[in-house]
Structures
1.
Amino acid sequence: MRTALCERLGIELPIVGFTPSEHVAAALSRAGGLGVLGCVRFNDAAELDGVLSWMDDNTDGKPYGVDIVMPAKIPAEGTQVDLTKLIPDAHRSFVAQVLRDLAVPPLPDDTDERAGVLGWLHSVARSHVDVALKHRISLIANALGSPPEDVIDRAHAAGVPVAALAGKGEHAVRHVERGVDLVVAQGYEAGGHTGEIASMVLVPEIVDAVGDRVPVLAAGGIGSGRQVAAALALGAAGVWMGSFWLATEEYRTTMPGSGAMQTALLDATSADTVRTRIYTGKPARLLKTRWTDAWTADDAPQPLPMPLQNLLVSHAHNRIHAADDPTVVSMPVGQIVGRMDRVRPVAEVMAELVRGYEEALARLDKTR
Amino acid sequence: MRTALCERLGIELPIVGFTPSEHVAAALSRAGGLGVLGCVRFNDAAELDGVLSWMDDNTDGKPYGVDIVMPAKIPAEGTQVDLTKLIPDAHRSFVAQVLRDLAVPPLPDDTDERAGVLGWLHSVARSHVDVALKHRISLIANALGSPPEDVIDRAHAAGVPVAALAGKGEHAVRHVERGVDLVVAQGYEAGGHTGEIASMVLVPEIVDAVGDRVPVLAAGGIGSGRQVAAALALGAAGVWMGSFWLATEEYRTTMPGSGAMQTALLDATSADTVRTRIYTGKPARLLKTRWTDAWTADDAPQPLPMPLQNLLVSHAHNRIHAADDPTVVSMPVGQIVGRMDRVRPVAEVMAELVRGYEEALARLDKTR
C-alpha cells in the first residue's frame, strides 16, 4: 500500500487519520500512517503546546500533523461575549426546552465549563499555527476551505505542507491556486462538514481537476481495506479517515466519559446519520439521535449561521456529554459508522486496513 | 475485467446497462455487456413485444435483459381515471402555473398523448413479464424492491434470473430471502429512485450482508473504468450503469427530440442534480433545472405519494419534452452527469471503461 504520498510525507502507509485525540494521533503515526491532531478543542494555546510536546515524545520520531479550523468568512475579531449577543432568545429557549424534554441534567454547580467556540475564530486559529510551527509537525490541514494566505506562507517557510478539504472540483482548484499542497476530497458520506457529492463521483472529479499538481486524499466512507483500495482505484494518493478512530481504545484514553458516545456509534447503522446545520451552522453529518431529531420538529428554529450556532449549542453539548446517554449524543460521524462494530486499538484497525487492501487487490488480480 | 458474473450471465464484461432505449440496450449487449431494457414506457404490451423481437434480432445472439417496475404497495387495480380523482386540485393548479411561468407551450391539438403512469401498475407490469418471457431474455430486474413472488417463480421456471435494487443492507437480505438472484446496490449518488447511503459505504455493506448467496452489482456514480475498478475493489461482481447511456448516439435514435435533454446533461456538473419526490412520489435523483427548482418554492405543494405524483406530472412531462428547452428538462440522472462531456456511441463508452479499468489496476499494482 505504497503511493507517492508516502515519500512526500515520510510515512509507510498512505493513511491519514484525523482525530481530536493525541493518543489516537500518536498511535496512528506509530503504526505507519499520519496522525493529524484536530486543534479546535484547544481554546488555550499553552494547552495545545503541552499536547504537541507530548506528541513529539510519543510518536517514535515519526511524522504527525495538525488540523486547524480556519473558516474564510467569520468575525475575525470580537470576543465570545459580543457574539453571544447575536443569538436570538427564541433559539436559547428552544435549546433549553429540548434539553428538558430529553431529560439531560444540568451540569453540577462546580463545573469548570469549556468555552466552546473559540477555536473557530481567526485569532485563536492563528495562535494554534504559532504553537504548531514550534513543533516538528509534517502537515497543517484546514478543515474549512483554503487556509489564509499568510498561514500558507508561514507553513511553507517552515517547510510544512498544507492540506485543505474540498467538496467540489472548483474548490480543489482554488485551493491549489492559493498554494495548498494536498487536497482532501471530502464526499457526502463523510462525517462533519460535507457537501452533497458522494466519494465515488467526487474523488476522480477532484483528481482530474487538480491533475499532477497535488496529491488527493479520499475522505468519506473509508473504514476497510476494500474502501482504501477503491479510493486508490479512483485515483487518490491516499485516504483521510476521521470517523473510524472514534471507536478506538486510545480515543477513550484522551476523552474520558466517551462511553455513551462509543456505545451509540457501535449500535448505529449506516442509515443512522443526518446531514444538518445544527452543529456549527454549516451542513455537517452527525450521528442521528434524539438530539438531532429534536431539531427536525415542526416548531424547531432554523440553525444560526457559523459561528453562532456552535456558540448556541456549546453549553448543551457539555450537558449532553456529561449526561452519558447513548440516545442523546451530539457527535459528527460519517456513514461508515455502520461498519464500527467494536472498540479496538488503533494498531489493530491499521493492520486490518492493510490486510483488507491486499485481499481486495488479490481479488482484482483474478479479473484479468 | 472478468468476474463470476460473466459466467453467470454469459457475458464478456461485468457491465450491466439499464436504459429505456432498445438501441442502447442492443449496443450494450453487442459490446459484451448486458443491455437491460427499461419497460415502464411501454403501456401497450404489443409494442413491447415488437421491441423485444427487434432486440432478439439485433443483439448478435448475445444476452440481454428487461427491467420491469413492480412496486410492492401501489393500487394493484383501478384504472387511470380512478386514480386521477385522488389528485387535489391545488396540485393541478400549481403544475399548470409552473408550466406557464416557465413558458412551456401547450401540446399541439393533434398530439396523441402517452398515458404516462400505466407501466407502474401491477397489471401492466405483469403483462410486461408475460411478454418478456416469450423472448430470449437473460435477466428480469425490478427497479423497486423485490419482485412479487409469482413473478420470481415464473422467471425461475423459465430459467431466467431475477435482480432487484437495494439501498440498504436489510433490503438486500430480504430480496435474497425471497429468491432474488442478483442484488443491485444503488447508492445515494445514483439517478432515479435512490436512498441516502452512498456507494462507497453501501456496496461493501450489501456484499457483506448477502455473503456468497448472490452476486452484487454496484450502481450509482459509475461512468469511468476507475469507478468500475473501485466498485470491484469494494466487492461487487459487476456494475449497473443507467445515467451514462443517456449521452450516447444510440439513445437519440430511440428517443427523437432528446436533443435539449442531452444538451442539458452535457452542460451539467456533478452538483447539478437533486434528490426529490416530484417525479414519482418516491425520492429520486433528477437533473436540477428550472422545473425542479419550481418545486422548492415556498408556495410549492408537497409531492403526492406514488403513483399519483407521476400521474400528476405526466402531462407536464410531455409538454416539457416537446418544449425542447434545456433549462426545463425533467430527467432522472445521477451525479455522474458531471462526467458526461460528449455524445458518443455505446461501443466507444464501453471501450473506454475497459481501458480505464486496466489503467486503474496498473496503478494499483504499483502500490505493492
2.
Amino acid sequence: MKRTSRDIRTANRYEVLRRIIARSPTSRQELAAATGLSLATVATLVGELLDLRMITEVGFEDSAGGRPRGLVAVHASGGALIGVDIAETYVRVELFDLALNVLARADEDVSPGESLPEQVVGHVAAAVGAVVARAGVGGARVLGVGVSVPGQVDRSTGLAAYAPNWDWHDVPLLDLLTEHITHPLYLDNPLRASAVAELWCGAARGRGDAVVVNLGTGVGAGLVLGGGLHRGVSNSAGEWGHTTIVLDGRPCRCGGRGCVEAYVGASGIMRTLRELGAGSGLLHPGDQTATLAALGRGLRERDPVALAVVRETVRYLAAGIANLVNLFDPEVVVLSSWVAAALGEPLLHEVREAVARHALHRPLAATEIVLSPIPTDPVCLGAATFALEGALRPVGRRTLQRAAPARRL
Amino acid sequence: MKRTSRDIRTANRYEVLRRIIARSPTSRQELAAATGLSLATVATLVGELLDLRMITEVGFEDSAGGRPRGLVAVHASGGALIGVDIAETYVRVELFDLALNVLARADEDVSPGESLPEQVVGHVAAAVGAVVARAGVGGARVLGVGVSVPGQVDRSTGLAAYAPNWDWHDVPLLDLLTEHITHPLYLDNPLRASAVAELWCGAARGRGDAVVVNLGTGVGAGLVLGGGLHRGVSNSAGEWGHTTIVLDGRPCRCGGRGCVEAYVGASGIMRTLRELGAGSGLLHPGDQTATLAALGRGLRERDPVALAVVRETVRYLAAGIANLVNLFDPEVVVLSSWVAAALGEPLLHEVREAVARHALHRPLAATEIVLSPIPTDPVCLGAATFALEGALRPVGRRTLQRAAPARRL
C-alpha cells in the first residue's frame, strides 16, 4: 500500500492549493514554511497552478529590505466545483467557486419509499442541473462533481459497496450517475467529506488529529490523523456507528446488536422517544427531520420529555465519544451533521459533561469537543474538495479517477 | 502540532536506518525507491549513518551494465541497545546489537506487593546491570535504553502519568531511573513498543495500517497508521482497554464500568474463571501467570472449564476487536503480549470466528487477524528501537530526549 511518487506529487500540489485557498494572498516562502516542502518544489507547484489558472499573481509583499516576495491568490472564478450530499432523507447539491464560496444550492427530498438507486440518482441529476443553471456558470467551467453517499464506498470501482438504509450492496453508482452527468465524478462517503470540510474550513484547520462525529440517520466518525484523512485499507475506516457499546443490546440495521448507531442515530433517538414519551407530541412517526426539529425546540424550551430523551441518548453518545477520545487521543472532536445541528448547544453541553465521566483524564484534558462551525452543508463542501483533488491529477478524467487513490490527502 | 524540519530530518534518518536493518545489504537507489526520498537526500543520510559507524560499505551490486551500485549494511557491532519491558508482574530486559539480535536477557519477578516506583526501578536497574555484564559489551557501546512502562507516559517530562495497576500518578520515572542508569533513557509504553516491534520485525512489516492488540494484565491497542506510529496529541492513543463495550458493565480499575479490559485483561479472565468454574483447579489465586498458563494447557487438552472461560472471554474480546476493525479498517490485527502467547492458536481460532459475527463485511474482508510472530519479547524489541531513534537525533543526550517528540516515527 505504498504511495507512488506520482501520488506524492498530486498530494503536494493539492496541499499547496489548499494552503492558498485557506489564506490568500500568500507567498511561495510562506507556503514552503507551512507545508515543509522546499522553496524550489513550491515554486514548481505554484507554476503548475498558475498554468491551470486556478491561482493568479497579485503583486508583491511589503518588504523590510531584501527582494520583494511575489504574492499569489486563489482565482475564484477559475473554475466551479459541485458537491453532492446524498443523505437518507434528502439530496443536497451546492456549487462552489474555487475559493469555496457557495454560488448556488438545490435540495430534493428523498421519501422513505424511494430506495432504488435510479430514484436517488434522479434526484441528484435534477439538483445538479438546477445548480448549474442557477449559478449561471458555463458547464465547461465545472471541474468536477464530488458525490457523497452513505455507507461504504469503493472509490476505485465507483460502487456503493454497502448502504444499510436502502439495503444497497455493490450498486454501480458512478456508472448510473455518468448517464446523467457529464462532468468528472468522484465518489466517497459523508464521513470522509465532513472530515475534509473541517480540515479545510472548520474546527480541524491546522490540527493534526481530529475526529468528526457525524450524527444523522447513520452515524460515523471521519478521521483526520497526522494532518490527513485516514481512509483505511478498504476506504471503510470510521464506522464508529457500528462499534458495539452494549454487548447484546438493541438490534442495529447492520445486523449486529448494541451498536452506537442503534442508540444515537436518528431512528435510535426516535425509538428512545417512543419508549420515554410516546404521548408527548414530539414524535412525528416516519419523519426523522420533523421529530428531531421538535426535539431541538423542546430542548430550548426545557420540555421535560425532550430533556429526558436527550439525556438518555447522551448516555450512549458520550460513552461512544469517550471511546474515540481514548483510542485516538485527538486535538478536537467535532459534532457534525443534521442531528447535531438540530439539537445544537444543549446537546453539546450534555455531551461534554458526560464524556468526562467515561474518558481517561490525560487524553480528555488534551481534547476539546465542539459543534461544527461550518455554516453551510459540510458534506457538500467536502465532496467538492474531492472534485478539486481529482482535477489536480495530471489527467483529471474518468480513467484516472478510478485508479488507486492516494492513501492520505 | 506541526513537525519542524529537524523532526523531519531525524525521521528520515531513522527511516533509512530502519530499511537498512530490515534488508542488508542494500543500495542507496533501493533505499530511495523504498522511502520515496530523493537519491541525493538518501546519499546524505547514508553518509551520516556511515560517520556514526552504524552502517558500513560492503562492496558493489552485480550490475547488468551501467555504473556499479555501492552496497551498505547494518554494522551489527556498531553499538548496543537495551529494551526494558516493565510489566505488572515482571521486568524483562534485553540487550540487542544494531541488527536487533538479542545478545543477553534478564528477568525479574515483580510481586503484587511491590507497587512503589523505587521497588520497580530497583528491578530495572538490576536487570540492566545483568544484561550489560552478560553480553560482555563495554558500557560505552550502549547507545541508549528504551523503557516501556504500562499506562500513560509523558515523553517530554519523563513522567509515568497514570499507571492504574500501581495507582501511579505523575511518577518521575525517568529521574528515578537516571539515579541508577547512566545511558540515555527513552520512556514510552507497551502499546507503542509492541506496535513498533511489529512494524520493524513482525506482522506489520511493509503494512500501512496495523493494530497491535496487547493482551496482558492491562490491555490496549498499538496503532500503526499511514506507515507510522499514531501517538495522539498527548501520547495516549490506543487506550482500547478503557473503551466501553458493556455500558454500565463490570467495574474497571480505571474507575469506569464495562471497559474491554474488565473482561479480557488477565484479572478479568480470572474473574470469569471464578464465575464459571471456581472448583476446576485452573485458578491460582493471586497469580495471573500461573492461572493463564493453566488455562492455556486446559485449552490444548480440551478441558471444558478452560474452553468455557475462553469462549466467554472471546465474546467480549471479539466485539472489541471488531470495533477496531470497523474504526481503523487495518490491513492486519496482531494479537500480542503474554496472555495472547499463553492462550495461543486456540484463542486465535475462536477470535477469528467471533469477530466475523460483529465486524462489517467490507473492512473484515480486507484485514487478517494473526498472533504476533516475534519470537522474543516484542516490548523489549520496540523499546530498544526507541533508544535507536533517540540516538539518531543530532545530539542524543538527555536534554534533547526531553524535547517535544516527533509525532510519527
